[in-house]
Structures are given as structure tokens and as C-alpha cells.
Amino acid sequence: MNLQSCVEYHFSFASRLCIMTTVCEANGSFAIHLLKTLCQNNPSKNVCYSPVSISSALAMVLLGAKGDTAAQITQKEKQPVQMMRQKDTFHLAYVNEVQAQVLLMPYEGMELSMVVLLPDDGVDLSKVENSLTFEKLTAWTRPYFMKSTDVEVFLPKFKLQEDYDMGSVLQRLTMMNVFQEDKADLSGMSPEKDLCLSQFIHKSVVEVNEEGTEAAAASATISVDCADIRHVSTFCADHPFLFFIRHKETNSLLFCGRFSSP
């Protein structure tokens, strides 16, 4: 390979990397905006969804479209819930801005990790939700911000299965044209005229148990080392929290959710 070819390959790779980074950041911002909207629509309910699945479906629609397209947690009685206990070395941080702990739990293989945002006891989760952005989530989980420490983790055992009609949600995010018969232009997808979206249905299932996390038929196991732990910090998720399943290399959010009650 001559020098010219090497230079062309380098800049071609750099361009692809730049595009991928931009896409991942855009998808991450979309995921957080969507989380906030769903939480506002369901202020006291569990929330879980796959931003990757939704983005992929939207991309398929929008690539065929022509033209421009553009709370608070209620107090509830205490409810019993089965808690899982685990001791290991994890990355842990505290965010003064929202008075919350951030826990990073890697999955076996290290390609995926679960991020849990847990506000202090007595602090409304809405404080975290209102302040959260993709940029902040990224900053709060950077290696220099977090500390690798021995942690005793208490997480509820739960399974969330949620169905959403995303039409009204997406329209609130200014994606309206594809839902309006007089404005939608999906001629790039189908030769049929007067075609528009009537519904956008999304179903998501996330299960967290002793064996790990199962999300939409994909499972992984969290590594556990049962060695003796000294000077252990405590992370006790016995009140509402946000969670994310993230791909490490691309920083993509594969699943997002809020656990409010069993």
C-alpha cells in the first residue's frame, strides 16, 4: 500500500469513526429525551424501553419519507420486594448536583454494563430525571469521575414488561408529519398514495434476577467474586431508581428504564 492509499484509508476511517460517534451521541440524546417524556406521561409507573429498537424502526420509516420531519413521583405505601445481595468491586460515584449515587456493573465479557442512578433516600427521582441529559450521564460514568471500590449492592428482583403506543410521544418530540395523512410522504417506502403512520407500538421486557439481566431475549451474567470484602460501601436500591443497559465501545444505550414499584 503506497503513502497516498494509507492517507486516504486513514481519513476514510476517521470520517467513519466521526460519523459513528455523532450517531451514537444523537441516539443517546434521543434516548434520554424519550425517557423524560415517558416518565412524565407515567409519573408513578415503571418504565422500560429499547431506544435502539425504536431508533431502528424510525430510521426505516424516515429513510422512506420525503420532506421535512422534524412530574413528579407520587408517594406510595411501602411494598415488600425480594432483594438480591451482591458483594464485589464496582465503579461507584456520587453526584452532588442531583444527590444520587451512580453504580456501574459490568457484564461478563465487559461489552455491556448496567448503570443505576439511585437518589438519596427522601430525594424524589424526578430531581434526577429533570436534570438528566445524555452528556451528563456520560460524564457521570467516566472512569476519572467514578471510583473502583468494594460495594455491597442490594437490588430488587424484578421483571418489567411495558407496551407503549409511541405515536403521541413521538408527536410531542415534534415528529408529526408522518402521522398526518395530508402531510406524510412515504413514497420512498411504498408506491401507495395517502400513506401515513397510524400507530407506533413498542413492547419491551427487562428482567433482573440472580442470574443476571434478561432484556428482550438477550441475556448476560454479571461476574461475581465472593472473596472477603473490607471497608465495603453500600448501594441499597430500596426506593425508585433509573437504570440503563449500555454498550461500552459505542456508549450506546440499549435499554432504559425506571423502577418505581414491584
UniProtKB/TrEMBL annotation:
<dbReference type="Pfam" id="PF00079">
    <property type="entry name" value="Serpin"/>
</dbReference>
<dbReference type="GO" id="GO:0005615">
    <property type="term" value="C:extracellular space"/>
</dbReference>
<keyword id="KW-0646">Protease inhibitor</keyword>
<dbReference type="InterPro" id="IPR023795">
    <property type="entry name" value="Serpin_CS"/>
</dbReference>
<keyword id="KW-0722">Serine protease inhibitor</keyword>
<dbReference type="InterPro" id="IPR036186">
    <property type="entry name" value="Serpin_sf"/>
</dbReference>
<dbReference type="GO" id="GO:0004867">
    <property type="term" value="F:serine-type endopeptidase inhibitor activity"/>
</dbReference>
<protein>
    <submittedName>
        <fullName>Serpin B9</fullName>
    </submittedName>
</protein>
<dbReference type="GO" id="GO:0005737">
    <property type="term" value="C:cytoplasm"/>
</dbReference>
<dbReference type="InterPro" id="IPR023796">
    <property type="entry name" value="Serpin_dom"/>
</dbReference>
<comment type="similarity">
    <text>Belongs to the serpin family. Ov-serpin subfamily.</text>
</comment>
<feature type="domain" description="Serpin">
    <location>
        <begin position="32"/>
        <end position="262"/>
    </location>
</feature>
<dbReference type="InterPro" id="IPR000215">
    <property type="entry name" value="Serpin_fam"/>
</dbReference>
<dbReference type="InterPro" id="IPR042185">
    <property type="entry name" value="Serpin_sf_2"/>
</dbReference>
